[in-house]
Amino acid sequence: MTTSFEQFGSSGAVVDGKWNKRQYRIERLLGAGANGKVYLVKRGKLHYAMKTGFDAVDHQSEVNALKALSKSNTSFRQYLLDVDDFHRDGQDIPFYVMPYFKGSSIGEFMKRNGRDWIYLIGLNLLRKLAELHKEDYIFGDIKMENIIVSGYGDVDLIDFGGVTLKGKSVKQFTEVYDRGFWGGGSRTADEAYDLFAFAVLLISSTDTERRLVGIKQVLPQNRNVEMLLDMLQSNKALSQAAPVLRKILLGKYTSSKQALADWRRQSYPKPARTPRSTGGAWLKVCFAASLVVFGLTVYMYWL
Ligand SMILES: Nc1ncnc2c1ncn2[C@@H]1O[C@H](COP(=O)(O)OP(=O)(O)O)[C@@H](O)[C@H]1O
Ligand SMILES: [Mg+2]
Fold this sequence. Notes:
- There is one protein chain.
- The protein is of the alpha+beta class.
- The protein is built from 8 helices and 10 strands.
- Strands 1-2-3-4-6-5 form a 6-stranded antiparallel β-sheet. Strands 7-10 form a two-stranded antiparallel ribbon. The protein has a two-stranded antiparallel ribbon with strand order 8-9.
- Strand 5 and strand 6 (91-99) form a beta hairpin.
- Helix 3 (118-134) packs antiparallel against helix 7, helix 4 (191-205) crosses helix 6 and helix 5 runs antiparallel to helix 6 (242-249).
- The protein is globular.
- It starts with 13 loop residues before the first strand and ends with a helix.
- Bound molecules: adenosine-5'-diphosphate (ADP) and magnesium ion.
- Adenosine-5'-diphosphate is lined by residues 30-36, 38, 49, 51, 98, 100-101, 145-146, 148, 158-159, 161.
């Protein structure tokens, strides 16, 4: 069933939960992907992210996976804060509410803070995957758009639309990150499937030669894991992680725990620069302004 969700669009609109009776005020659209739209909303003084799905069946399956994870003893606990319908113009629009993660994509984060952050981001991402895999789920759709980086290289996974129980067929994936696309293995949900996408993500986010751009035009019979291994070999930003990433691409790990242990064992450069948040720039401007005012005051005093 496909419904129209345009009603959520305007900022300031109020969404009333039909069953749980919670009220949210729409602030702005955070993003839209293949499955739905996500809005920044406010309830009381707190901000949350609200997702509405384009397809009711897909939306429900995402909610089901999140429900199970929300009960687990992992960092995904309490991820699902509310599930409800919004009744408008004679139809019920399903939505769910999750924490709002303020941050940026891996690409933006590294542009601001340096590419040597990739090792810490990689470590934190592997940790998340290991947690999820322990609960017998795989993420499925690891890609740049579904990961938010904040603080000290902290990683949050968003978009649980691809989350699949181990052993089933992967529900949702993105070609360039997909093991099957590269002829590197099946689309069965196993831990190595997520690890493969993880390796492609790291290569693509440090791919200064932009060799992955336009890869979809390469004929399937000409695409293979060798191409990725080749890109990895010439990638200077990933030189210290190359042995682990190589093993991942060759399907040598059956569990993310093993990959994580190997990742930890390697010595990586400490990021040269402390992370700058977007708000940091303003602090600097204010600090500089206060110095000028101070200087002027001293100057006028002595005059
Ligand atoms: N919890 C969240 N906090 C902050 N931004 C989010 C959150 N969830 C989603 N987004 C933003 O909305 C975009 C689309 O959400 P996503 O769940 O990936 O939708 P789709 O399933 O359609 O791909 C994301 O790429 C991200 O920019
Ligand atoms: Mg998405």
